[in-house]
Each structure stands twice: as C-alpha cells, then as structure tokens.
Amino acid sequence: MRLLNINTFELHKFDKEIPPYAILSHTWGNEEVTFGMQAQPALKNTSRNRLQVLKVKGFCNLAHDAGYEWGWIDTCCIDKSSPAEESKAIKSGTAGDLEDCRWFTRGWALQGMIAPKVVKFYNKDWEYLGSKSDDHMQDRLNRITGVDKRALRGGHLCLFSAARKMSWASKRNTKLDEDIAYCLLGIFDISMPMLYGEGNKAFIRLQEEIVKQYDDESLFAWKTN
Description:
Blueprint: E1 2-5, E2 11-13, E3 21-24, H1 39-44, H2 50-65, E4 70-73, H3 74-77, H4 83-92, H5 107-114, E5 120-122, E6 128-131, H6 135-145, H7 149-152, H8 162-169, H9 179-182, H10 185-188, H11 201-213
Parallel strand pairs: 3-4
Antiparallel strand pairs: 1-2, 1-4, 5-6
Domain DUF8212: 201-223
Pfam families: DUF8212, HET
Domain Heterokaryon incompatibility: 21-90
C-alpha cells in the first residue's frame, strides 16, 4: 500500500505494518496531482492548478491536526497503470449546501461514504460540516443518498439485499461506463478483473458474479429510490 507523508508530501510503500492514515474522498477536477507526477514536486510547483494543489494541502493540514502522519488520496497513491494495484486498492477502500454536493452523485464516493468507520465532511473551503457518526448527519445522508442508516452506522453489508445495495448506486454516475460496475466491487465483496474498454459489459459481469456468490434473487427486482 502506498501512502503520502502529510509533512513532506513524499510517497512511501508499505507491505507490512501499515500505519494509521487518513483518507480523502473527493471528486476529480482538472489537472489533479496524480501518482505519475510524483506528489512531492507537484505539490511544491506553484505553477500547477492552484485549486487541486490546495485541495491536497488542505487535506494534509486537517490530517496533521487530527494526529495523522500519513494520508491516502486515490489520485496520488494509486498507480493506475497497474490493474492489480488498482483492484486491490478498490477492495480495501472496503458551509455549502450538502444536498447539492456533486460528491453524492459519483459512483466511487459510495464506498468512500460507507466503508470507513469515521467520515468527516468539509466544504471546498475546508469548513467542517459534520461527521457520519452524528445522528443529524445520518438523517441527511439517508435522505440525500438513500443509503440505510444501519449501513452508515457500520452494519455489515451482507445484511442488505443485492437489490437494496444496487439501489444505493442507482442515481450515481461515473466518467467511464465500466466504473459503475467496478465501484460496486467492494460493496458486494466481489473480486473480478477490471477490463477497461469493455463498456457496459462490466455491469453484466458484475451481476453474473453476484449470482454465483449469493443466493439472492432480489438482484433482478431492484429499482431506483
């Protein structure tokens, strides 16, 4: 696993004894700081897209204040040229108007909201909006996303039918057609090759894998919220 040192902006790879780390779940913009650029020089290059650099630095500041030395950001820490690394990362991931936030429309953000025990929400100016553990925030998240509060509280996802979990993603979108299937691999605890270029066939393969692993016919009866 590759982590970003929030003090030096250097990337380090950990094979064992992974230290505690904070995660930034976000939506991608133009000219993100990516793995291929190497985070340290990119973050120190003031000529780069200021908004994306400030996003990473703002996250690092918050993580530091929370007592973390390491952070994980998909754009910086995943080598997307390695399908095996990307697949492993996906499985392990297992004061604006919150209702209008585009983060709630993105497929990849679903796992980022459900899987971690602690999720804190900030606006683009890094003003604190609330935590997933707050009762009032759970009510808002349930209303906005349709995700059951039991799941938000850490309930095991095997307790929810395939149809229910599919409905959580029904109003979300991804930049690539394949990702609407791949972003659900962790939700369903499914392992399957990620074959970019296959288009909508990825979702068919996902359904086939769900049928193989689960005796749950609700998969064929789910509907949008």
